[in-house]
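FYI - complex with magnesium ion, inputs then prediction.
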Amino acid sequence: MSVPMHVLVFASQKGGSGKTTLSGHVAVEAERQGAGPVALIDTDPQGSLAKWWNVRETPAPAFMQCTFPNLLHDIERARSEGYRLVVIDTPPAVTRAIAEVVAMADLVVLPTRPSPHDLRAVGATVDIVESRNKPMVFVLNAANPRARITGEAAVALSQHGTVAPVTLHHRTDYAASMIDGRTVMEVNPKCKSSLEISALWDYLSDRLSRLEEEGHERGVRAVGPRINALGKSAPAFGRRASASA
Ligand SMILES: Nc1ncnc2c1ncn2[C@@H]1O[C@H](COP(=O)(O)OP(=O)(O)OP(=O)(O)O)[C@@H](O)[C@H]1O
Ligand SMILES: [Mg+2]
C-alpha cells in the first residue's frame, strides 16, 4: 500500500506570531499520533527551529539540513526516504523566497496573534498564498480567552479565509518547554497546552486528508505523488542542524 507525504508550511510576515513554536509542536505531535516519520526544515536564517532541535534529546522528528535553492530536491529526497510529513518554518518576511517555499506546500498555516498589528499584517502573507493558489488556514495563537479581541480577530480573519476551530492560548509553558528542546506534550501530556496542540494536529491532519481526497477526485495530484511506504524507521538527517541559507 502506498502512503502520501504532506508538506505543511508555517508562514506569516509578522514577527513573533508563533511560526517556530507551532512548527516544532505540530511536528512532534504528528510523530506522537503516529503520522510520522516527520522531517523539519528551517528556512529562517535566524535558525530558531534548528537551535531548538539541536538541544533536543529525542531524535524524532528528524531535522533536514537543506539549502534554499535545493529545497524542492530536498523535499523529494524526504519523499523517497519514506517521510510522511515535512514541516517547514519560514522567516517573518515577504520575499520571493518565501513565495517559493509556499509553492511547495500542501497546506499553509498562518499563525496569527489576536492583535491589531498582526491582523493588519495578514494581508501580505495571504497575497503570497493566493498568488500560489495554495490552501491555507489561520491559527489564532497566544490568545487570551477572556479578551473580546480574540473573538473579533476570528471574525476578521474569516473574511480572508478559513480559521482553525482550535485556538492556542497564551501560556508560558509553550516558551518554557522549548528551552531544552522539548514541547509542552513532552513536559506534561495532560496539560491544557498539550490538549490544544493535540486538537490542532487532529484538525490539520483532517484538512490534509481531505485536500488529498479532493485532489484525487479531481484527478490531479493535489498533494504530491504517492510513494511506497517504507515504515516508520526512516533515517534521521544528521544531528547538527542549522537553518537553510
Ligand atoms: N501560545 C503562546 N503562549 C505564550 N507564548 C508564546 C505562544 N506562542 C509563541 N509564544 C512565544 O512568543 C515568542 C515568539 O514565538 P515564535 O518564535 O514561535 O514566533 P515566530 O513567528 O517564529 O517569530 P519570528 O517571526 O521571529 O520567527 C516566543 O518567545 C514564543 O515562546
Ligand atoms: Mg520563527
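Residues 224-238 have pLDDT under 50 and may be disordered. The longest helix spans residues 192-217.
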